[in-house]
Amino acid sequence: MLKLRKLSTIYPNQLWLNLSQELQQEAWQQSQLHGNAAARCQAYLNYLCLKSFVPWLEAWLQEANQTPGKISHITWDSLWEFVNGTPIELAGMRLLLVPSETSDLEEFAIPCEWVDIPSWRKDYYLAVQINLGDSEQSWLRVWGYASYEKLKQQGIYDESDRTYYISQEVLAEDFSQALFLPQPETIPQGEAPPQLSAKVAQELLEQLSKPDIYSPRLAVPFAQWSALLTNEQWRQQLYNQRLGLTATVPAVNLRQWLQKADGIVAQMWQAVETLLTPRELSAVRGAENPDVTVSSEAIAPLIRLLQSDRPEKERCQAAGVLGQIGIGHPEAIEALTQLLRTANDEETRWEAALSLGKIAPEHPQAGVSKARLIDLGIQLGTYQVALVVTIRPKTEEKIGVRLQVQPINQQHKLPPNLQLSVISGGETRLQAESRSDEQGEGKDKLLQLGFSPPPGTQFQVRVSLEGVCVSEDFIA
Question: Which of 7, 140, 215, 471 is deepest in the core (most CB within 10 A)?
């Protein structure tokens, strides 16, 4: 069998990458949590693709003096359980790697999900052959690629396996050349997949979770399958059920956050500063650095800014700073408690409650704020956003709830048409949507909703974009 160096000489326009034994072992371990042999093989090949191609792409762009920004990709086991393909995004260019072990390269096969689900469409589809042997004969080969337009014009769709096939003869070989081309025009998005009712979704989940259904993507009509697949929560639930894992995530009891009994959700929900605060600022924050002490003389001017004769904006800002440096100062706790009683502005009251939560977490009026990364995956591209949930006691029975969606990078703005919704009793009770500017770019840095649900109220918070959504259930 020819070795990698010889092969790369024979086919100089194709990308050839070595696959180390260590990477193969890592990929094998990562691929074991899948429902059947086909899914495990699919996850194994895609993991090899991801871990080989991204480092090559980063190095190539650096050598070519290109500035791609962040290269975004996903490693969802819940995706590879069902569909072959690894999506990668850089500087507005959307790529899909489609791996195969076949030696028959007469045609390139692409699952229709990556073509016919509008929000999943790519600019370029890369055909990847993987050869597994000993340390000198294991390699990855990008043997051709096609644009979305070429795939739609010259590809042939096979309904029996919901796959597009395109001949090797019309594929381009040297993918690096595409990286020098102007960014492709925006792909027509069409309509988003139809939304499923919760009842229909649960019926599909029960049907498709049965182990005798070897390929769920072919077992139901495509319209239903695409709606189920693009819903991150439902896709994860189906993946869990097929593996016999816990099928559902229990609702988050917000009162447990106030009681500091939040171990169940500690891994998913983090301190807001962990996700949103730049690391270089953490050294000056008292909550993260308890060894740093601030004198009473430094606290006194801030406390004066909380007085009722000061502008409300100043009072709010001063309350926020006290939450960073007021640990160990009873006078700061008393001043924030007084501010909660006298503030006219709701935002000031929220800031006072949160600062109390940082410097006196056991105080009966202390607020709690937690955040989690929202993974809408291929929908967000280079965007990363967090859902921030903040609560504070309002009366003995009621709590206030504030929901925010913010970019992880505080310099970024939210993508247009991102929705934050509160759903209760099957109805959307509150909703906010991000806007676009005249150029069609994101305009907002924050989406926010606030309300005070009655005790015991169950509600769902949903973040969605172009038919893909992530949701979380809560109990007030």
Answer: 140
Provide the token pair at 177: 């050349």
Q: Are strands 93-100 and 427-433 parallel, antiparallel or unpaired?
A: unpaired
**Residue 333 · residue 363 · CB < 8 Å:** yes
Residue 117 CA to residue 288 CA, distance in Å, equals 44
Give the full edge-to-edge strand order of the sheet including 107-111.
Answer: 107-111, 163-167, 156-158
C-alpha 418/C-alpha 442 separation (Å) is 10
Query: Tokens 């819903």 identify what position?
Result: 231
Banded pLDDT at 430 (limits 50, 70, 90) = very high
Locate tokens 């890369």: which residue? 126
- Minimal CA–CA distance to 31: which of 71, 110, 84? 84
- Please tell me the distance from the alpha carbon of residue 53 to that of residue 16, in angstroms, as a whole number: 10
Strand 419-424 and strand 458-465: the pairing is: antiparallel
C-alpha–C-alpha distance, residues 375 and 470, integer Å: 7
Q: Strand, helix or coil at 91? A: coil
Cβ pair 133, 206 in contact under 8 A:
no
Which is nearest to 366 in space by CA: 318, 322, 408, 403?
A: 322
pLDDT tens-place string over residues 12-59? 889 999 999 999 998 898 888 888 999 999 999 999 999 999 899 888
State how beta strands 163-167 and 156-158 pair: antiparallel
Three-state DSSP at 36 gives coil
Contact criterion met (CB below 8 Å) for 441 and 435: no
Tell me: pLDDT of 78 over 80.
yes
Show the beta-strand stretches assigned E in 45-161: 72-73, 86-90, 93-100, 107-111, 124-131, 139-147, 156-158
Query: Which amino acid is present at 302?
Result: L
CA distance 274 to 370: 10
Q: Give the residue carrying structure tokens 């959700």.
A: 265
CB atoms within 10 A of CB 79: 24
Report the alpha-carbon distance of residue 94 to residue 379 in Å, rounded: 11
- Cα-flanking dihedrals φ and ψ of residue 360, to 5°? -145, 70
Strands 399-407 and 447-451: antiparallel
Please report the domains of the chain, with CATH numbers, ordered by start residue. 4-178 (no CATH), 198-242 (no CATH), 273-359 (1.25.10), 368-475 (2.60.40.10)
Can you give the length of the chain in residues?
Answer: 476
Residue type, 141: R
- Amino acid making up residue 121: R
pTM for this model (two decimals): 0.56
pLDDT digits (tens, 9 = 90+) for 193-233: 667 887 888 899 999 999 889 999 999 999 999 999 988 77
268 vs 236, more confident:
236
